[in-house]
Write a structure and sequence with these properties.
CATH topology of one domain: Jelly Rolls
Helix content: under 10%
Shape: globular
Largest sheet: 9 strands, antiparallel
Order of helices and strands: EEEEEEEEEEEEEEEE
CATH architecture of one domain: Sandwich
Amino acid sequence: MFAVLLVGPVLAQARPAAPARATVPAGWVVRPDADAMGHGDGATVSFVAMQPGWHVTTGPAAILYDSTRRATGNWRLEAVIHLFDPGARAEGFGVFFGGANLASPTQRYAYALVRRDGRALLKVREGETTRTVREWAANAAIPQWKPGPKGASVRYPLVVEARGDRVTVLVNNVSVLDAPRRELPTDGIVGLRINHALNVHVETLTVTPLAAR
C-alpha cells in the first residue's frame, strides 16, 4: 500500500526500495534513450508494479508504455506522479502521447514534462532527434521540490488534453502550456517519460475520450 501523509505540497512516506534487477510489469515496455546511456547507472531502469500504481527509478532517461493504452481524436490523459528527492538535478518527468513505431529507429511521440523547479515543457521526438514545441516555462500551479521528512515526495497531478485544434497541459487543474494541435502528434500510444537519475512513484495513468467542442 502506498501510504501518504499530506504536509503542505510534500507527501511524507516510506521510500520504496527498488530492486537492482526488476521485472517489468506484464504488457509494458521500457525504452531508454539511445543517447542517455552514459547517465545515472548505465542502462538500468527499475520499473515495478507497486500499489497504487508503479514505481520507477531511472538510470538513463526512458519511455515506459503498454501499447494497448492509446488515444485518438479528443482525449484527456491524466497522471499523478510523486517525485522523491532529486538532489540538485532539474530533470523532467511526465507523460507522452501520439506514440508510433516506438520499438524502431523511426519512433515518434510528443511529451509533456514537469520538473522540480515548477516548470513545464512540451517536446516532440522524431527518431533520435527532438523538437521543442514549448520551452521550459514557470507557473505557480506547478509544485516545487522542498526538502521534507526523510523519504518525502512531492505530488504532481498532470493532465494533457487534446481537443479540437489545441493541446493543453494542466497541473493542479491550471493550464500551464498549450499549443496548436498541428505542431505535434496526438493520435497513438500514451505512456510515461521519465528523464535520467530520477526516483518517482506513478499513482495513476489514465486516458479518457472527450466530446468535441
